[in-house]
TrEMBL record, chain A:
<keyword id="KW-1278">Translocase</keyword>
<feature type="transmembrane region" description="Helical">
    <location>
        <begin position="146"/>
        <end position="165"/>
    </location>
</feature>
<keyword id="KW-0472">Membrane</keyword>
<feature type="transmembrane region" description="Helical">
    <location>
        <begin position="172"/>
        <end position="192"/>
    </location>
</feature>
<feature type="transmembrane region" description="Helical">
    <location>
        <begin position="83"/>
        <end position="109"/>
    </location>
</feature>
<dbReference type="InterPro" id="IPR004338">
    <property type="entry name" value="NqrB/RnfD"/>
</dbReference>
<feature type="transmembrane region" description="Helical">
    <location>
        <begin position="27"/>
        <end position="46"/>
    </location>
</feature>
<dbReference type="GO" id="GO:0055085">
    <property type="term" value="P:transmembrane transport"/>
</dbReference>
<keyword id="KW-0813">Transport</keyword>
UniProtKB/TrEMBL annotation, chain B:
<dbReference type="InterPro" id="IPR016838">
    <property type="entry name" value="UCP026449"/>
</dbReference>
<protein>
    <submittedName>
        <fullName>DUF2330 domain-containing protein</fullName>
    </submittedName>
</protein>
<feature type="signal peptide">
    <location>
        <begin position="1"/>
        <end position="18"/>
    </location>
</feature>
<dbReference type="InterPro" id="IPR019283">
    <property type="entry name" value="DUF2330"/>
</dbReference>
<keyword id="KW-0732">Signal</keyword>
<dbReference type="Pfam" id="PF10092">
    <property type="entry name" value="DUF2330"/>
</dbReference>
Amino acid sequence: MRADPVKPRPPLDPSAATPWRRLDPRFYQIAVLSGLLIYGLGWLHFDITPDRAALLLSTALLTQYVCTKLWGLPKFDPKSALISGLSLCLLLRTNFPLLAIVAAVITISSKFVIRWNGKHIFNPTNFGLVFLMVVGAPVWVSPGQWGNVAYFGFLMACLGGLVVNRAARSDVTYAFLVSFAALQFGRAFLVMQRWPVPLHRLESGALLLFAFFMISDPKTTPNSRAGRILFACLVTAFAGFIQFGLYRTNGILWSLAILSMAVPLIDRLLPGVQYDWSRVRTNPQPQGVPDEASSGVRQPALDRPALG
Amino acid sequence: MKHLLVCASLLWTALLWADPASSFCGFYVARGDAKLFNHASKVVMVREGDRTVLTMANDYSGGPDEFAMVVPVPTILEKGQIHVGSREVLDHLDAYSAPRLVEYFDEDPCRAYAMEDRAAKVAPQALGMTDRSREEQARSPGVAIEARYTVGEYDIVILSAKESGGLQTWLLENGYTVPMGAHRVLASYIRQGMKFFVAKVNLGEQRRLGFSYLRPLQVAYDSPKFMLPLRLGMVNADGPQELFVFAITRNGRVETTNYRTVKLPEGMDIPEYVKDEFPGFYRSMFTRQVENENREAVFLEYAWNMSWCDPCAADPLTADELRGLGVFWLGSSGPQGFVPGGPQNTFITRLHVRYDARHFPEDLVFQQTADQTNFQARYVLRHPWKGDTSCERYAEYRRTVRERRSKEAETLASLTGWDLASIRRKMGGGWSEDNSPAWWERIWNN
């Protein structure tokens, strides 16, 4: 685990890194998400067709391309858009192709439009989903679609990501998983449920997807480690309130969307260094340009990304 | 191609799970030491916003004086929130949404004309019941009788309790046998703020009303909790239990959020002889699917807008019947009968779950989705042409039928786990032997 990210880290010599470490961590993420999508389509029979997945992915990429042009970014980088598109394929369900298009456009454009202090506020996929649910669009998210059969394979793939990417910002994932487990076991203890109940709630593919690929988004989490841990605990607490107080579904998605708005405040109270996909840039980043701007040389993957 | 369609809907539940006693999600508490089992139950959940109307049907067939039901409910119920429903309506809903068999008759391969349809009828389901009951005062600490009503043939007590010991004592003092292990489950529901709905049969009322069986109990309440308490039902369970949930909503399909909801395999061609063995087929197929999913899934058997069906296992329910089940948004001025194709803002989801404590540690939690895609568990029989066989095309037709039947046998074996050789034997019919020319005979037509 890396030192406190508040301290600026010295640039690493890319030549000293092994080839796999030089690879952008988003490639690993794309591979895992693609694998999950193929598994979901082929084995778990998700309520999504390959056509719909293609529609979501192509719309996400096209929106990324258009936004790249509109915001004058130097280079079109499809990685984040692909990650967001894949995440939508895994989560978003609707009967209407038009809504799928709208969801992809909102998801990708949100990171260009809704920004604060050089960071986008919401995890794009999270925002796209919650926005459509808030406005009452006929969409839904099926947290039960994963079942428990493939849980451990899923967990291994996620943990593999941590290892491969030497994830410094995985602290938010750890903090969330630990606090969420504490919440579930604490609640079970309080209402005298046996331990298989909280265990069953933790053995959820939806939870893993959220913990490893959504809440961990380095571009939308607080900059300091203390801030991220606080953030993860707050997301857990509010998700618990939604699940056990309001008895609503998808508490973690709602909670993340709401708590994301508190990130600027957390950053102000607990300042830290802003995350950058590429620590070593050959070109200075244009003013006001989103962090999507791609640079030529990348530092070895120090931080683990999340759903773009 | 014009074909005839015969829809044979079988009310298979009665045949498949013919065990004498069963319950809803609660457990039966018997007087004395009478041992009761619960195996299959049916629940209709009408849900819109935070409003829920539950209809609980049971096929209990023990002594009426030994019947009692304890169900955790989210709120204290007033008398007007409790009702006794019609078993016929529930049977109709069951029949309407039941897995179905359709059959097609091949055209004459020599002359294209259609055959005629036949339709099989829905077998009636029989539920037997009786009863008797009485009530005593609560003297147990921490237990409050919130209300006591007689509704139809039922005596109903609404209890709230602060601790499970008191509740258990109350049940024991009132002559119930509380199953071993119920204590902890009751305690958990108490901690979650649930109230308890205890129903017994009032024999006098039942005699006066003239019913020889127990009618479904209905309760209506406001609560954000969209769930079914299963765990009490598992306390005295003797093996896995079956639960059918008929969820009726305004907007779309219902699914479980804490378990996988899996669509049953459907639309397959299966051998003709299954027509006479459909209940057995369905039982084996369902069991195999349950095993395939590690016994951890809830199965979707039907999802359809109530205004129509295709093919219809039974007519859609009328507006009156739906209102009887608690579909409150239809209002009282709606159409009195079913209008084919007419607007009926009711979407039905039929879920089937086989559960036990090990694989279903949690109660079922549901969500309503916006999914209006129709789905039905439908299986197809295709009858070969058995008329005039004089033309040249008949040989080719016979070959395609043989291939089809071979595939049907494999499908059936794969769906049910039945032995392929025995399936082929049962199929018989003279279609199995291969009389077609060898592959090389067809090259040059020598």
